[in-house]
Specification:
heterodimer; A: about 250 residues; 6-stranded antiparallel beta sheet; two-stranded antiparallel ribbon; B: about 220 residues; two-stranded antiparallel sheet; 2 strands; membrane (chain B)
Chain lengths: ~250, ~220
């Protein structure tokens, strides 16, 4: 005997009801949680920027942000200016940290001049210029906040990724990798050279800071190449600003 | 196990060893290879799968009399995908830090054959409580293997456990590294995960001859 659930009409009605129920459930959940998620992302950006300029809760080995509670307060305290550079023109914008670098990159491809956010932070009498950059890793997006001084020498870096392999590419957000960038020079004799994530760098302690190279993570070649490319492509765009700064 | 009947406790205990989803049923291998380079990732993945499988089995068991058999696989897939998206959204809203660590794994859960396997083989034919126990049991069996593989891969590949250096410092040459030990970078690549799983299967079948199939 044919079962009630074997009928075609039953199957179709069941499929339609299931899709509607699941769709409604997920849509409701997503829209009701959206403000909380957006707020979390906003705080994370502040934490990232602060991390890059050395305002963080690190101990000897860990890479920890300041707490979400303190982030807005500290962000206001340390970040003195937020700039947007577009077509060589520099304007101040208090919400420059909310600029979506991914969207700006897409705009640039479509011919719309890209807006480049830059944050100027001050800590212990030193000035930090912090730039957000974004690129591709092995599986998905990778991004970073690089803090520099006015000579484009790296003073701090924070890397993050969407879906790199745990234990391999995902280690770009480990302290030992991020700390290697501190002190590296981006410019060489007045031209932009970037920093290569190099295999066989023969400098495991990263003592040579003018060689424009840091040691790669074993087994994460493509992620490392992505990091080099992201630094080369995105930080280069800031060079005119830094050249103006010197004059 | 005073709380559970003998039959029920079998549902939890069997998948831990003699009917292990990875080493005996040979399911869920893909995620076991992909994320076991670190012990922490193995643990986090195990907990996520425990949740999805426990709840998923209950949901499928509740729906077992109304799901049309023609589209049961699609219905099961929708249940897994929905649970995974709910976990992801809730974590993003209430445990943002954790959600970032989990991001890679949450997506991988959908591809986990054990979940679909248990829905198909057990939850569609059994009551809610027993389905729940079966889901938990199989998730624990999966967790055991994942944690063993993660332990050896992280220890031999990076010289650390849960991120803490346990064999000394490879750059400063202290601890084991002082006597010439080197990290085996090959352990961090997926092929070695397969070999470690293979070794576990071998050990298990050597100890329990009943598991060896006759040709």
């Amino acid at each position: 005997m044919e079962n009630r659930t074997d009928k075609n009409s039953y199957t179709i009605v069941f499929a339609i009801i299931m899709v509607i129920v699941v769709g409604a459930l997920l849509a409701f959940l997503a829209s009701s949680l959206k403000p909380r998620i957006a707020e979390n992302e906003r705080l994370e950006k502040q934490q990232n920027i602060l991390y890059a300029m050395g305002v963080n809760d690190n101990d000897e080995t860990s890479a920890n942000f300041v707490s979400t509670k303190e982030a807005p307060k500290l962000f206001e305290k340390y970040i003195k200016k937020q700039l947007v550079i577009q077509d060589g023109e520099v304007t101040e914008n208090d919400e420059a940290y909310l600029i979506d670098v991914k969207k700006e990159q897409a705009n640039a491809k479509a011919g719309i001049p890209r807006r480049l956010p830059l944050f100027i932070g001050e800590k212990d009498g030193k000035t930090y210029y912090i730039a957000p950059i974004r690129g591709k890793g092995l599986w998905d997006a990778i991004w970073a906040y690089i803090a520099m001084d006015k000579n484009m020498v790296v003073k701090g870096a924070f890397f993050d990724h969407a879906a790199e392999t745990p234990g391999l590419g995902a280690n770009i957000k480990q302290r030992y990798f991020m700390d290697d960038f501190i002190g590296e020079h981006l410019m060489s004799n007045g031209t932009f050279k970037g920093i290569d994530v190099a295999k066989g760098n023969a400098d495991p302690r990263n003592e040579d800071k003018t060689d424009h190279a840091v040691d790669a993570i074993a087994g994460a070649t493509i992620t490392g190449d992505g990091v080099s490319a992201m630094i080369r492509n995105d930080l280069k765009l800031y060079v005119p600003y830094f050249e103006n700064l010197k004059q | 196990m005073g709380l559970l009947s003998k039959k029920d406790s079998k549902l939890i205990l069997d998948p831990l060893a003699d009917n292990n989803p990875i080493t005996i049923q040979v399911l869920g291998i893909c995620s076991a290879l992909a994320i076991t380079a670190e012990l922490e990732a193995s643990i986090v993945m195990s907990i996520s799968v425990l949740f999805v499988m426990g709840v998923g089995n209950v949901v499928i068991s509740l729906m077992r009399n109304v799901i049309p058999s023609k589209i049961r696989i699609i219905a099961q897939l929708i249940v897994v995908a929905t649970l995974v998206i709910i976990v992801d959204l809730v974590l993003k809203a209430f445990a943002y830090e954790l959600s970032k660590t989990l991001s890679v794994f949450v997506g991988l859960i959908i591809t986990n054959c054990i979940i679909m396997g248990r829905f198909e083989a057990f939850a569609l034919a059994n009551g809610t409580w027993r389905s729940f126990l079966d889901g938990v049991g199989n998730a624990l069996g999966y967790a055991v293997i994942l944690i063993i593989v993660g332990f050896f891969r992280e220890l031999l590949g990076s010289g650390t456990l849960l991120g803490i250096p346990v064999l000394g410092d490879p750059i400063e040459k202290t601890g084991l590294y002082a006597i010439g030990y080197e990290n085996n970078g090959f352990m961090l690549l997926s092929p070695m995960a397969l070999i470690v799983v293979g070794i576990i299967i071998w050990v298990q079948r050597t100890r329990n001859k009943a598991l060896v199939e006759d040709n």
